[in-house]
Design brief:
The structure is a single chain. By secondary structure, the chain is mainly alpha-helical. It has 2 domains: 105 residues, no CATH class; 54 residues, no CATH class. The protein is built from 7 helices and 2 strands, in the order H-H-H-H-E-H-H-E-H. A two-stranded parallel ribbon has the order 1-2. Helix 1 packs across helix 2, helix 1 runs antiparallel to helix 4 and helix 2 runs antiparallel to helix 3.
Amino acid sequence: MTASSARAASRLRRLAAATALLLATAAVALAVVVAVSNFPRGVAVAACAATAALSAWYAVRRRGPLHVVAEAASAAALLGAVALVAFSGDLIAELLVLCGLAASVAAARSAFSVRERLPRVRPPRHAVMFWNPRSGSGKAQRLRLAEEARARGNTVNLVSGGRFIVPVCHVPVSASLRRIRG
């Protein structure tokens, strides 16, 4: 990627981010106006949408049975919001809110997408594992991770006792890690 095309791509991502923020703000403002103008139903739709968003966020962040319950609650709240919108008299304004939010999400996806071409490389011949035996409450030691990896033909490097990972890595990896470390 040339410098001018990188600047153009950066400009487009900034424009998409600004568009996403503007559309989200406008959609939320319109949703507040619609909620206030259709007082009993508007507040119920906003409550259903907020419940759907919060339970969806909870479902994304968790695993197990509570994850499934949160997904079901999100779907039920979303269906409740759709039913309330379908039976209210101001369908066009509600659709404008939904379209504004959808366009905001699309612009945000465009702003945060990265399109880099990576060079093709050969697959690794064997894996190399770096691990700290004190990390994870000693679970790796209890499960005999190092012995299992060695039995499968992998190289194992223990990182402990104040030893940093950089000295045991190859030169290209070491240089990039030193830049990350500062």
